[in-house]
Amino acid sequence: MRAEERFFKVEDDFRSPFSRDRDRIIHSGSFRKLEYKTQVFLNHEGDFFRTRLTHSIEVSQIARSISNSLGLEEILAESIALSHDLGHTPFGHIGGDTLDECLKKDGHENGFEHNFQSFRVVSSLEKRYSAFDGLNLTFATLEGILKHSYPYKKSFLPKIIDEQFDLSTHPSIEAMVVDRADEIAYISHDIDDGINSGLITFDDLKESELVSFILQKVHDEGIDSQNGEMFRYRFSSHLINHLVYSLLNYSKDKIDNSTILTAAIDAKESLPVGFDQELETQIKKLKKLLFVKLYQSKEIIRKMYAGKQAIRGLYSALMEEQNLLPNYYKELLHVRKKYRVVADYIASMSDRYAIKLYNELYGRI
């Protein structure tokens, strides 16, 4: 029974349980903050580039389309997709890695991990009810946020989490769909953003079989100039379509959707959602190429290094002087460890707020 049933009858709500999950996620403060959190390019670099918010919306759209085609719970996939990045810190993955380093350097072995932080955001950090913490989401949505596609055995997890979610099993098929939709979305939009920024060109990526295949599709449409906006749009469209249809063709005969929610899949079993081996290999090679050509470019490294210094500086200052914390977080010091309160506060920040606070404390970065 949901906690909300103590206040009103759930059957009076016109929405399905997963629709209520989705609505609560969309109306949360943590979801709104994704608008100003980095995907690859810092938020203030320009209005065109993707943020965590636009990325989450793109993942949701792809996951819904796939789930609908496979006869799965479309709204469950949407809810997981919209919330899967709520735990990310400012400055993308480098921000989370740096916060993890700060915590462990201070002797806190639990550190920071964004999957579990996303789970904590929706299950305890968001406060929308007087009687309990969290957004009061369904088990399936919470499990999908926590596990993504795979068993989630982590030493830092409280025993009660393992007891509730059986961390030795895979999550629902819908969660697996979101995980692959996430991959499809970030590969396509990172290429788009990277080319629009001028940091990479299509020629830089031609050694990828997958990119060469998609480029030919665009050329077959009679669009020859690789420098134009239309070429980028058509490339992204063809790439997403190719990956989505390939996933559907590979997965459709491997999924049992005869029940409302597919049963938990044992960790020893292979995932029923994915691509054939040839395409999996092409995707891995493309991701490695993007890492070298885009994510490791000096322009991105410079910005991410500045983000690392901001996270380190904020953690040091807030641990030293707790009166820098907002009143809400200072109150939490009575019920939670100081290091965790500080980490939660930093993780909740947008890029621009983290930079603003760092500049107030240390001068401009």
Main beta sheet: strand number and arrangement? none
The CATH homologous superfamily: Hypothetical protein af1432
Number of domains: 1
The third-level CATH topology is Hypothetical protein af1432
Please give the number of β-strands.
0
Order of helices and strands: HHHHHHHHHHHHHHHH
The rounded distance between the terminal residues' Cα atoms is 50 Å
Structural class determined from secondary elements: mainly alpha
Task: Give the proportion of residues in helices.
Answer: 55-70%
What is the gyration radius calculated from CA atoms? 21 Å
Give the oligomer, counting copies of the same chain as homo and different chains as hetero: single chain
Shape field: globular
Ranges where pLDDT stays below 50 over 5 or more residues in a row are: 3-9
Average pLDDT confidence is: 89
Note the beta-strand portion: under 5%
CATH class: Mainly Alpha
**What is the number of helices?**
16
Question: What is the architecture at the second tier of CATH?
Answer: Orthogonal Bundle
What does this molecule look like?
- This protein has 365 residues and is mostly helical.
- It has a single domain (15-362), classed as Orthogonal Bundle (Hypothetical protein af1432).
- 59% of the residues lie in helices and 0% in strands.
- It has 16 helices and no strands.
- The chain has helices at 17-26, 29-33, 52-69, 74-83, 92-105, 114-125, 139-147, 159-165, 173-197, 209-220, 229-251, 277-295, 298-320, 327-332, 338-348, 351-362.
- α1 (17-26) packs parallel to α4 (74-83), α9 runs antiparallel to α11 and α9 (173-197) packs across α12.
- The longest helix is centred in the middle third of the chain and has 25 residues, at 173-197.
- It is globular, with a radius of gyration of 21 Å.
